[in-house]
Amino acid sequence: MTQLPDGRYVNDAPFDAQASLQQLERRDLDAPNWVLIWRQFKTHKLGLISGIFLLISYLMLPFAGFIAPYTPNERHPDHLYSPPQSVNWFHEGTFIGPYVYPMTSEANLETFQWEFVPDTDNPAPLEFFCTGKKYRLAGLIPTKTHLFCAPKDATVFLWGSDRLGRDVFSRILYGAQLSLTVGIIGITVSFLLGITFGSIAGYFGGRIDWCINRVIEILRSLPELPLWLALSAAVPSNWGPVAVFFIISVILGILDWPGLARSVRAKFLSLREEEYVRAAEMMGASPGRVIRKHMLPNFMSHLIASATLSIPAMILGETALSFLGLGLRAPAVSWGVMLNDAQNLASIEIYPWTAIPMLPIIIVVLAFNFLGDGLRDSLDPYQH
Amino acid sequence: MEILRYAVYRFGTMLLTLLVVSVMVFAIINLPPGDYLSNQIAELRASGQSAGVAKAEFLRSEYSLDRPLYQQYLIWVGFMPGPHGFSGLIQGNYGWSFEFDQPVADIVGDTLWLTVLVNLAAVLFVYLVALPLGVIAAARSRTWVDYTSAFVGYLGLATPNFLLALILFYYGHKYFDLPIGGLMDPIYEGEPMSWDKVKSILIHLIVPTFVIGTSGAAAMMQRLRANLLDELGKPYVETAVAKGMAPARMLTKYPLRMAFNPFVADIGNLLPSMVSGSVLVSVVLGLQTIGPTLLTALKTQDLFLSAFVLMFVALLTLIGTMISDVLLVLLDPRIRYEGRET
After folding, report:
1. Distance between CA A313 and CA A264 in Å, rounded?
2. Closest CA to B183 of B292, B264, B87, B325
3. How would residue B340 be classed by pLDDT, with cut points 50, 70 and 90?
4. Which terminus of chain A has a smaller tally of CB atoms within 10 A, N or C?
5. Any transmembrane segments, and where (chain B) (predicted)?
6. How far, in Å, CA of B293 to CA of A229, rounded?
7. Domain containing residue B149: CATH number
8. Does B75 fall in a domain?
9. What is the phi/psi pair of residue B99, to 5°?
């Protein structure tokens, strides 16, 4: 420690660049990639929350029937367009647990609407783990137990009922099964097509590249929805709901791949000049192996991020198609099918709760966007 | 003259693309089994009306639906003589709509111009909204202005636009007395253009433009903001600030111009999604554009009508993209004409 003439102290030890690296950073250099990505991702709070939310939503799908108090097509002829009922805890100041008021409907002959009067004298406590209509847990195990259901002589329409007296809340849960998986199946199709064509174009170049590139350009320059409409109009109307569901997801995926293929191609064009690719080629690896083992893993994470960002478009696409009556059809329940009921101004004005399915759509789409943003920001851990 | 050559080249590729699109459209339309006429013939046979059957059979051969598919295509486009010589899209014959029992040209008629109008208005809206908001969001990044606009933008992206249309229509009517449905007052329909008609159309355009444009504007705004932020971090900006340039002038002089390119180039991505949106919104709001026609035509397998509408929609986006490409070259001399290929 020497003292300079102006009074400051200076350390005599020679400067060691390595020591100025912090302990944490040095460990980073050895950490596997995913640890770094995860650490970076955790700082993106919105993305993290969205990811957790989506995870819970998807995990919930098999148990939709258990959580829902009713089955999706169960009708209550006495409760058409019933408004949402609230679940209360205190009745006249005393705690009696969650309960609802039984509702009786009366026809108003002046407005031709059903009017619902809650019977506030007889609170009906909700039942838990009770027996209701039969459904299949995860589509496999037949059971009758529901998480909660309406007490005797009362109904529990948390988010109201629709024009046939079906519970909107239960239908939204069931609808999630289709609406959320459409995006996953669609993105799988688009992923497979996009990676295949993109990598072929980028790896081989030349004439194949030219052809694929033109196809990509043409598909990208066309408006999606009219083509979706045309393709789904071609789905035979006598097919079952499951078949229609799959074909719709595939249609959504078929028109989505060009964007992905484009980025794959661009990446491949630059990667194929790298030494390790040339080395692999010289050792006699087949093009398929070079693509799959050496090049794809390089930017797989990047692809996953962009796939996450294109799932919302598919969810919205399914909604739009079903809404127009060309997507999933009636016995099937999806958010788009439900919104089909809310198509006119009358339902927005008089029965606004029939438009509730738009909330889960907005939330899920937002969540996918935030998750995708978060993933994209955290994928290059060495950049920060 | 380089630019003229490029424009011609770009026009040529557009025509080629259109040709490919026509093949695709025709194939897609013919995917479902059966066609309108054979469905009708079967129906008439079942009810025992032979007179109708004869007419349908006549139409079948008149529009050469009894020939192999590739011949149907060639006749439809006008590459091959049909029963009445060359008479296809190229010659200006758009075909016959079986559902409406009218020539396709008569059915679509006005709706074509209104479709163009609606989309044009939406594109204008996108630019007018996205440009100032994007610039402000970038210049004041990480302030409440930025966060609010990002939030609104995300919401615009996430809301299905048909629902937005319904809700806006309802509240627009309730609080601002905006008209519900349609693109003009019913009294002006079929009337010649007049000042009042134009005014009526403009008022009716407000909500559709907003609905169609919102998601596009949101996407555009985010991109402009990102581009501008990239530019703002560059050393030449620092130099300008250090030399004491006024912030507003500094911003508009260089970084904005740099960030502007993608803004124009983006219309190629923007237009297809906007045209999609306009089709959907038109169906929901009952606008007299091509959207509702397309939906009925597709549902009833009205071959020529749906094929024509699809072709028109594709043409609209292709022309838009072409214009934006040429504009881009005009705006930025650094873009090499052949360089855009990669």
Report:
1. 19
2. B292
3. very low
4. N
5. 7-29, 112-139, 151-171, 201-221, 263-287, 307-331
6. 12
7. 1.10.3720.10
8. no
9. -65, -45
Q: What is the Cα–Cα distance from A98 to A86, expressed in whole angstroms? A: 10
Chain A residues within 8 A of B166 when measuring between CB atoms: 342-345, 348, 355
Query: Are A341 and A162 contacting, i.e. CB atoms less than 8 angstroms apart?
Result: yes
Are B294 and A222 within 8 A, CB to CB? no
For B239, the domain range is 123-336
Helix, strand, or coil (residue A4): coil
Closest CB to A226: pick one of B31, B268, B310.
B310
Give dist(CA B297, CA B283) in Å, integer. Answer: 13
> Helix crossing, B2-29 with B69-77: angle to 10°?
140
Residue B209 lies in a domain: yes
| B236 within a domain of the structure (yes/no) | yes
Q: How many domains does chain B fold into?
A: 1
How many Å lie between the alpha carbon of A123 and the closest alpha carbon of chain B? 35
Is A230 close to B29, i.e. CB distance below 8 A? yes
Instruction: Tell me whether residue B118 is in a domain.
Output: no
- Which of chain B's residues have a Cβ under 8 Å away from the Cβ of A362? 155, 158-159
Alpha-carbon gap, residue A204 to A170, rounded angstroms: 52
Q: What pLDDT is recorded for position A382?
A: 53
| Mean pLDDT score across all residues of chain B | 80
Q: What is the pLDDT of residues B85-137, one digit of tens each?
A: 777 777 777 778 777 778 888 878 778 888 888 888 888 898 888 888 888 88
pTM: 0.80
Q: What number of C-beta contacts closer than 8 Å exist between A and B? A: 119
Q: Using a CB-CB distance cutoff of 8 angstroms, which residues of chain B are in contact with residue A339?
A: 160, 163
Test B158 with A361 for CB contact under 8 angstroms.
yes
* Dist CA B15 CA B104 (whole Å): 22
Interface of A with B in 334-373 (CB under 8 A): 339, 342-345, 348-349, 355, 358, 361-362, 365-366, 369
Q: What local confidence, expressed as pLDDT, does residue B167 receive?
A: 80
Going by C-alpha positions, the residue among B126, B162, B190 that lies closest to residue B292 is B162
Q: Could you tell me which chain A residue has the CA closest to the CA of B301?
A: A233
| A383: region left, alpha or beta (phi > 0 left; psi from -120 to 50 alpha) | alpha
Question: Residue-wise pLDDT tens for chain A (384 aa)?
Answer: 778 888 888 888 777 666 655 555 656 666 777 787 788 788 888 889 999 999 999 998 888 888 888 888 878 777 777 778 777 777 777 777 777 777 777 777 777 777 777 777 777 777 788 777 777 777 777 877 788 777 777 777 878 888 787 888 888 988 888 888 888 899 999 989 998 998 888 888 788 888 888 888 888 777 878 888 888 877 777 787 788 888 888 888 888 888 888 888 888 887 888 888 889 888 988 888 888 888 888 777 778 878 888 888 888 888 888 888 777 877 788 888 888 877 777 777 778 888 888 889 989 998 988 888 888 777 765 554
Mark yes or no for CB contact A339/B160 under 8 Å: yes
* Residues B158, A218: C-beta atoms closer than 8 Å: no
* Coil vs helix vs strand at A247: helix
Q: Which residues of A touch B25 (CB under 8 A)?
A: 230
Chain B residues close to A349, C-beta within 8 Å? 170
